[in-house]
Amino acid sequence: MAEEKTKQELEAAQDGVKKTQVSEKVEAATPLEEAESTETKKEDEPKGEAPKKEEKAQDPQEFLDTFDWERYSEGIEKVDEEQLKSFEKLVAENFVDTIDTDVISGTVIKITDRDAIIDINAKSEGVISLNEFRYNPNLKEGDKVEVLVDVREDATGQLILSHRKARLIKAWERVNNAHDTGEIVNGYVKCRTKGGMIVDVFGIEAFLPGSQIDVKPIRDYDAYVDKTMEFKVVKINHEFKNVVVSHKALIEADIEEQKKEIISRLEKGQVLEGVVKNITSYGVFVDLGGVDGLVHITDLSWSRINHPNEVVELDQTLNVVILDFDEDKSRIQLGLKQLEPHPWEALSDKIKPGDKVKGKVVVIADYGAFVEVEEGVEGLVHVSEMSWSTHLRSAGDFVKVGDIIDAQVLTVDREDRKMSLGMKQLTQDPWTDITTKYPVGSHHNGIVRNFTNFGVFVELEEGVDGLIYISDLSWTKKIKHPSEFCAVGDKLDVVVLELDVNGRKLSLGHKQTVDNPWDKYEAEFGLGTKHNVEITEMVDKGAVVKFNDDITVFIPARHLEKEDGSKLGKGEKAEIEIIEFNKEFKRVVGSHMVIHKEEEAKIVKQAAKQQQAAEKPTLGDANTKLQQLKERMEGKPVKEEPAKKSKKAAKEEE
């Protein structure tokens, strides 16, 4: 077993030194002695080549070349155990057995114009270009450096080392160790990049995301360039050789300790100093020294504001009061305006109902506008107090945010901190002299403001509205809804029909501004008038005949009957008679049947008259009856004559 081990060691040594004669001394020379020996080399040596050591009498290579390994392996030739032990000692003292990824320590024994000669305790010194030491311009002989065997033997048999690769391997070892242990490392911020910064850590370029630079938003990334800072390695991607570091993680760790201490001392009503960390549309986040609190926009100022940046700015230092916090104190509600007395408490006693004030419109709602009469003191102008008009509109029709308006104080409630204002009170009530301006029967022009199912509201002037009932819109048109007749914003001529001063109501009419055409139609299409027409349309219960745009005659189904018993149809021409004319309800009814029925009636009537004429008593009969009446009155007996028989009866008796 000992022999096999020895043979393996010898074969390993043979691989490393077979092509080059070993020139080291049996006993290793010190770096100082090697440096001195290099001064005696010839000047024509290749530049940068390490000087060869003096040959020793007992050379390991000579042993390897002269020893018959085949005979030894076949057991024919024996080896001197003492000689093998001596060779093993020489190899251990003179050669360094490394693989390409092993980092070893070497000593600078000489520095030339371009290279550094490094002794790594191998069969020859190694060479490293000075370019790899640009980061260390003070490199000198005797310095210890970390190196990696880059090329065991180049074309000239020279050992080539790399300091840069050795540093890179060591850097990754340190980075991995820092990631595993959580060690804090120093890094140099080289430059900006998309989304963050590039940081040099142990010679490795690491990525610092913008969100990991600080706990507060960063506005100027360039301020961190060329700075050396502490970082924590938070992520390593070995496949792509990516390293992510964080400076925020270190700050958060410190802040967490401060936060616990601060939170333990929090009390409602406590006043603290803080720095504005962030501004949003709904409030301001304030850093209280490791713990954040929110000042809602409504707690920034007693006055109404549209955005918090009207009151504070970033990085501003200010005092705030603690209003509330949750059980674990993770959410802290702060206030700024609470540090000042409420403006209502300082409101002048001179402001009372009836006073005229000037203010700025700060908020508009459908029901009214809020006006700031003093800083933090607001009054409401209800939309009904903006105009004398009884027809209510949106407050936005009268004022807009930012307007400076005059108003009158209507009520003041200091306890509930409420104030109501009025704008219309600063102008005269138009109903004061309404009977003079709008007497009954007077004609005016107004603007349509609104519809109802039963009529139209027309504005004669600001504050004076009147109602036109749907029946007073047109003499002739049948209107189901006012929108069929006019539109909002239209101008209409009107007549004042009724005036109620106490109720502040006007009744108007539009159709009364022109003559009623039905007065003319009554004579032309009145009851009993006859017209030759053409059936325009057939409907469920009869037919329709259109005379003009205003007059439409309805003929009931039974009145469509012709003389032969059939009925009139669409497009047929016939004579009709108006049997109903209602001017109030604009209803006209006609009949064709009555035309031929009247003819029949005339014939019957004429026959009846003829019969009556035949049976008419004579003058003698009348005198006889008169004489009999007188005799009865005088009490004389009256001789009754037999009644005369009609001609028909006499004829029948015969």
Give a structural overview:
The chain is an alpha+beta fold and 654 residues long. It has 6 domains: 2-129 and 148-161, no CATH class; 182-251, Nucleic acid-binding proteins (OB fold (Dihydrolipoamide Acetyltransferase, E2P)), CATH 2.40.50.140; 265-339, OB fold (Dihydrolipoamide Acetyltransferase, E2P) (Beta Barrel); 356-426, Beta Barrel (OB fold (Dihydrolipoamide Acetyltransferase, E2P)), CATH 2.40.50; 434-513, OB fold (Dihydrolipoamide Acetyltransferase, E2P); 516-637, OB fold (Dihydrolipoamide Acetyltransferase, E2P). Helices cover 22% and strands 32% of the residues.
Q: Supply the number of structural domains.
A: 6
Please list the strands of the largest sheet in the order they lie side by side.
26-30-31-29-28-27
Strand content: 25-35%
**Helix/strand class:** alpha+beta
Main sheet makeup: 6 strands, mixed
The pLDDT mean sits at: 76
| DSSP, total strands | 31
Number of helices: 12
Give the key terms:
654 residues, alpha+beta, OB fold (Dihydrolipoamide Acetyltransferase, E2P), 6 domains, six-stranded mixed sheet, five-stranded mixed barrel, 12 helices, 32% strand, elongated, disordered N terminus
